[in-house]
Specification:
The complex is a heterodimer of chains A (227) and B (78).
Chain A lengths: L1 E10 L1 H16 L6 E7 L2 E4 L12 H6 L3 E4 L6 E4 L3 E7 L9 H18 L5 E3 L2 E6 L2 E11 L2 E9 L19 E2 L2 H5 L6 H19 L4 E2 L3 E2 L4
Parallel strand pairs in A: 1-2, 1-12, 1-13, 3-4, 9-11
Antiparallel strand pairs in A: 2-6, 3-5, 6-10, 7-8, 8-9, 9-10
Helix pairs in contact in A: 3-5
Chain B lengths: L1 E4 L9 E7 L6 E2 L4 E7 L2 E6 L4 E6 L6 E3 L3 E7 L1
Antiparallel strand pairs in B: 1-8, 2-4, 2-7, 3-6, 4-5, 6-8
Classes of the chains: A alpha/beta (227), B mainly beta (78).
Chain lengths: 227, 78
């Protein structure tokens, strides 16, 4: 299976959502086998289908003061937070080419992050029933997907920069009392987010090829400036 | 009459939660319309209508837990 890679850079959540829908339609229509959107978001709190608004711990006024918007989304899961300190990936993967198995797909998304962390000398962990990737007891990557016609959308975010962690105190991430961490916090040195993109694409190729017993290959990254 | 059944969603997935009905009983539906959204773990899954007709019965409400193989709805074809 081929997947085309689209790099949106820093973008609003709504713009990325419109782009997801566009790529989804192209995959469903057979114009693309699959797609992978890479981006960073301006500060936003998103509420999944299982979300409890009480998991946002501050009022709307404070969110506005901090420049944070709120969006309800169709993915699974509770509440999460995105900002430019994270790298967010939306795999619009046609599981009809791979395997129609939701949990197998979720585990592979975790594996992509675990292998990326492994390259940095960090041991990423799964905890059964708590989808995402953890380092010790702190969460470093969050996952929430949706599937229609066995094509996935929404996806995963990994916390990269240290400065992005402060605003997680405004919510109960995924409805849990947990601490979040970031790559920079753990390895205690500056990381350029752009430097991770190519590695992550390679991890998608390796992990999905291995898990599904077929060649899963990316096209060259396309810059989608201005989205 | 067509029964809409919760299909296999993957290994180890035996149940899901009904998170959203796109239609109500008595509505007309077309084949492949999104009928119901189910949630499992950190994923939502949209089950399409298998045929065109009138959605005559919804067997579960939003928030209910359903098992693989359960009948979710009944459609009178036509």
């Amino acid at each position: 299976m081929w997947f085309e890679v689209f790099d949106l850079g820093l973008t609003d959540f709504h713009k990325a959502w419109e782009f997801q829908k566009d790529i989804f339609a192209r995959v469903k229509g057979g114009l693309l086998e699959s797609g992978l959107i890479i981006c960073r978001h301006n500060p936003v709190i998103t509420l999944g289908r299982s979300a409890d608004r009480n998991n946002i711990l501050v009022g709307e006024r404070e969110l506005i003061q901090r420049g944070i918007s709120i969006c309800e989304v169709q993915r699974g899961g509770d509440v999460t937070y995105h900002d430019p300190a994270q790298l967010t990936l939306y795999p619009i993967f046609n599981l009809n080419y791979l395997k129609k198995d939701i949990h197998l797909f979720l585990r592979q998304l975790e594996e992509v992050i675990i292998r990326l962390l492994g390259d940095c000398g960090i041991e990423g962990k799964r905890y059964p029933g708590k989808t995402g990737v953890w380092v010790d007891k702190e969460k470093i990557a969050s996952i929430g997907i949706a599937i229609k016609s066995w094509i996935s959308f929404h996806g995963l975010s990994i916390n990269v920069k240290k400065y992005g962690l402060d605003n997680f105190c405004l919510i109960r991430p995924c409805g849990m009392d947990i601490r979040m961490t970031s790559l920079e916090t753990i390895i205690a040195k500056n990381i350029t987010i752009d430097a991770l993109k190519e590695t992550l694409v390679c991890k998608f190729e390796d992990v999905f090829s291995s898990a599904y017993g077929q060649t899963v290959k990316a096209s060259p990254v396309k810059e989608e400036v201005g989205r | 009459m067509t029964k809409v059944v919760l299909p296999e969603l993957g290994q180890g997935i035996e149940k899901a939660t009904v998170s959203y009905w796109y239609f109500k009983a008595g509505d007309k539906v077309k084949e492949k319309d999104d009928l119901v959204e189910l949630t499992t773990d950190k994923a939502t899954f949209n089950l399409p209508s298998p045929c065109q007709g009138i959605l005559s019965e919804l067997m579960f409400q939003e928030g209910d837990t359903v098992n693989v193989g359960d009948i979710l709805a009944v459609i009178e074809e036509g």
